[in-house]
Model the fold of this input.
Amino acid sequence: MTAATLHTIDYVVLVANFIITLLVGIWSAWRSERSTTVGYFLASASMTWPLIGFSIFMTNIGSSAVIGLSGAAAASGIPVICYELFGVFGILIMGYLFMPLFYEAQVYTNAEYLQKRFGRSRLQIYISAQTLVFQVLHKIPSEIYAGGLIAEAILNWNRFIGIAIVLVMTAVVTIVGGLKTVLVTDFYQGIIMVVGGAILAGIAYSHYPSLELMKTAYSEAVVANKGALANTTCGDPSPWAFQIVRPISDPDYPWLGTLFGILIICVWYFCGNQDLLQRCFSGKNLYQIKAGCVLASFLKLTPTFLFLLPGFISRIDFTEEVACVDPDTCDSYCHNRGGCSNLAYIVLVRQYAPVFVKGLVIAAILSSVISTMTSIFNSGSTIITKDLYIKVRKNASQTEQLIVGRVTVGIYTVLGLALIPALDSAEGGQMFHYLQAIASFIAPPILVLYLLSAMWPRINEKGAFWGSMVGMVLGYARLVVTFVLPAPPCGKADSRPALFRDLHYLHYNVLLFVVTGVAIVALSFVLPRGEDEQ
Done:
């Protein structure tokens, strides 16, 4: 893997960004209230809409999203844009439907709302555990992998050292400052991300000034060196690359799963995900929260132009590397025999970014790693402290809760460092292939639980809990099968049972949503209501 050639100016920009991030964090920590739980976990509920909006954006658009968007576009085409478009709706639903309920309930976490809604703690514990599992299975590994790939492919750093530096910086910012410091640094890093990404995107677009020219060039971006796969269509551009609505049999984006499955993932991601909701919980009032969500929804449109479409250009201009299919060839390019599409954006940075811009873009991507990881650390410490620890230590003091929160951040840091060796030997392409599948198997039961709990008073605690258990069991059963029986590489016969071979994970997502909803409603009519329910 050829690393980028960095000029002294690029290193100056990179180091300056790290120093400024730390200084901004220290300044914010000095000015913030950190001696109370509401000050540490919710920034004293004093944040305004610009900080909320940029923090939602930066928490969402981590380095794994940057690499994933451009890589998915390079490999499969435009339908990945649905994650961005439906994400806009998810943000607005979060701000205008769920946040008024959470705000009125005066909660620290979305799981705590369920305890107040139903009068019992087991749904709160269930959602908290699900969130922590998702962070460990999905968010932490994906960010660590993406950050390590960036450190190795662009900076020529050892990925262990690169990620260790980022994790330590993340821990310092989160432990010392709390949520207010996280939001302030997100605001600064968000500006760097948009500016750096826009400059590189502009350079890439100058090569293909019209969409028609890009379409024609993409359709011709066929890999020449396929090795043993020379007589197959493996790696060829999809004939549906620029169509969102594809045949229902499409292996990547069947229309039913694209229109409904991705919508379910996006609405859950913003409305049932403590990482994102905690930014809103910090708002001074509902007006600031809603305005922040509106800003975030506009910012959510930018990744399409900053990262997704440049992924097409990377596939066009660097076809042999980005779209490689021969395992030996791919291994020589990116040390991954499964494919190198995850390098799409990185290759653009290496080849097209001039001096200073290269340093700025690298700083922006690494900033996104720090931003997303601080969000995970802060929300994880809040969940463990406010949803779980105080169930055991009901009379825990403010100081004790703050200590638990900070210790949790330290544990997350150690966990992240421990994952690096395992990820070093993992198939990166396979990991990113499974990321949305993991979300598809976890998200539907949680989203339908919140929707029914918020919108239909007839739903009771027993029906909600046991109906959610039905969805959870079905979701994790498919998740286990996905890892035990992975899809074979292109050119190999698929010997998996027809149920798993032919039922796309996005279709299973929709089915899981419907089945869980029916189970919750049916059981709520059959099982009696508890005395403490709201």
